[in-house]
UniProtKB/TrEMBL annotation:
<feature type="signal peptide">
    <location>
        <begin position="1"/>
        <end position="21"/>
    </location>
</feature>
<comment type="similarity">
    <text>Belongs to the phosphate/phosphite/phosphonate binding protein family.</text>
</comment>
<dbReference type="Pfam" id="PF12974">
    <property type="entry name" value="Phosphonate-bd"/>
</dbReference>
<protein>
    <submittedName>
        <fullName>Phosphate/phosphite/phosphonate ABC transporter substrate-binding protein</fullName>
    </submittedName>
</protein>
<keyword id="KW-0732">Signal</keyword>
<dbReference type="GO" id="GO:0043190">
    <property type="term" value="C:ATP-binding cassette (ABC) transporter complex"/>
</dbReference>
<dbReference type="GO" id="GO:0055085">
    <property type="term" value="P:transmembrane transport"/>
</dbReference>
<dbReference type="InterPro" id="IPR005770">
    <property type="entry name" value="PhnD"/>
</dbReference>
Length: 331
């Protein structure tokens, strides 16, 4: 049977995390007060108190909520069925509407494992105790993507300086390719976001892409992998657009588990992830990638953190609260 989970359950599970602070923690870095990073690997340590460890009977899984949630629930169905069989747990797909909702779900204990977009991964680590362990990839390497600036093929915009004064879409303020990377990289080529053009937040990469197609936006900064998947699914035609900028590569996303999963169950679950080979539909959706490739957050997400810091962004509690407040103002 399909397990059902909702936002009400997420909110009901929210606790007072200040009260959970681990006394005597030698190092936290940017982690929230609920967590400790004694080994300085930048992620939350497993709680030393056995009473704080979880081995849920219903395992909640999700994928980054920046695209069509229903499509990805269907796409990952063979995997969630396999994960249920492999772990002996019921597995439900948790449909979420935003990066913030996904972070809050893990922080509240309503999400146990899932895929986070590259930029929000940093907030998930620091605010929700997420521990990244994999990126979609193949036998040799994990999948990567680039920041691209797209315009319609019939647009008069030919190069980056031409977007000055135009209607340009970013996705959300926590998105790596959809905001943080443009803020850090564009000034180096003579275009300063929110000065040379007004930032218009679309909310999602697919909204930005479709907005350019419809003429709502003159240009949009988006993730290349999202663009490619929309082409693959037939939602857009690649030759209807022109790419006027492409950055260096970033990891596409991070699959992360909640830091307080019981170690025996956690290790069993991780083996299930690493042993799984994608269905043909999943391979098609992810450009031929066929597995969850192991990663180290401290090493493999260095460039994502660097871009964010270069853009003047941080991923601590103060920055997160500001982000949440901004999102509420827009509703």
């Amino acid at each position: 049977m399909k397990a059902m989970w909702g936002l009400a359950g997420i909110l009901a599970g929210t606790m007072s995390f200040g009260a959970m602070a681990q006394d005597g923690c030698p190092n936290r870095g940017d982690l929230d007060a609920a967590y400790c990073d004694a080994d300085k690997d930048l992620v939350a340590d497993t709680p030393s108190d056995p009473k704080k460890l979880k081995s849920p009977s219903n395992l909640a899984f999700t994928f980054t909520p920046l695209e069509d949630s229903a499509a990805y629930e269907k796409l990952f169905k063979p995997f969630t069925d396999y994960l249920a069989q492999c772990t002996g747990k019921k597995v439900g797909y948790l449909s979420l509407s935003s990066n913030t909702a996904e972070i809050e779900a893990m922080r509240a204990g309503s999400l146990h494992v899932g895929g986070f977009s590259a930029g929000p991964t940093n907030f998930a680590v620091n605010i929700a105790g997420a521990v990244p362990f994999a990126v979609i990839g193949n036998q040799k390497e994990y999948q990567s993507y680039t920041l691209i600036m797209i315009v319609r093929k019939d647009s008069a915009i030919q190069k980056m300086p031409d977007i000055k004064g135009k209607k340009v879409a970013h996705t959300s303020s926590t998105s790596n390719s959809g905001h943080l990377a443009p803020m850090a990289l564009f000034p180096k080529i003579g275009v300063v976001p929110d000065k040379d053009y007004k930032i218009l937040f679309s909310g999602k990469h697919d909204h930005s892409i479709l907005g350019v197609q419809s003429g709502e936006y003159d240009a949009a900064a988006v993730a290349s992998d999202v663009f490619d998947r929309m082409v693959e699914r037939g939602q857009i035609k690649a030759d209807a657009f022109r790419i006027i900028y492409r950055s260096d590569k970033f990891p596409t996303q991070a699959f992360a588990y909640a830091h307080d999963l019981e170690p025996g169950f956690r290790d069993q679950m991780l083996k299930c992830f690493y042993d799984y080979r994608f269905s043909d539909e999943l391979k098609k959706a992810f450009a031929g990638s066929d597995r969850f490739f192991p990663i180290n957050y401290k090493k493999d997400f260095f460039m994502v953190r660097y871009v964010s810091q270069s853009a003047g962004e941080s991923f601590n509690r103060v920055a997160y609260d500001k982000q949440v407040a901004k999102e509420k103002e827009k509703k």
